[in-house]
Amino acid sequence: MQQNAKAPLLQVVLLSFLSAIGIQYFQQESQRATDVIKVVNDRYRDLLSDAEKNISEANEKMNEMQTQHDKDTVTMRYKLLQQEVKLKSLNSQIVTLQTERLELMNMPTFF
Ligand SMILES: *[C@@H]1O[C@H](CO)[C@@H](O)[C@H](O)[C@H]1NC(C)=O
Asked: Where does the record place it (predicted)?
């Protein structure tokens, strides 16, 4: 009778002990998972900020290149225009010289 009364008590103590171990294990695992999540989150945030910095730098570089390209284009257009003006002037000189030459050839000879 006394033996039977002690058995459930032992069971309760044993179960309490086991669930205490279980709870401790669960808490440790939970803490470990929280730590891992924090590490992953930090890594993600670092990568994200690194990528955003890279994108911003790349955008800046692209803007600089676009600005330089625009400047180069304006310079080249101006030089082309100068060359066209020079060419027109040379062409008109040629026409003038040809006209003079024709006039000279058609001049009656007086001597
Ligand atoms: C940022 O740029 C550096 C240098 O180009 C590169 O090594 C790094 O991997 C880039 N970061 C990301 C997140 O792409």
From this structure: Cytoplasm, Cytoskeleton
Going by alpha carbons, the residue nearest to atom 6 of ligand 1 is: 54
- Determine what percent of the chain falls in helix, strand and coil, rounding each to the nearest 5: 95, 0, 5
Is this prediction's pTM over 0.70?
Answer: no
Q: What is the pLDDT of residue 38?
A: 97
Taking the centre of ligand 1 as the mean of its atom positions, its distance from the CA of residue 54, in whole angstroms, is: 6
In residues, how long is the chain? 111
How many angstroms does the Cα of residue 71 sit away from the middle of ligand 1? Answer: 30
Q: Give 69 Cα–ligand 1 centroid separation in angstroms.
A: 26
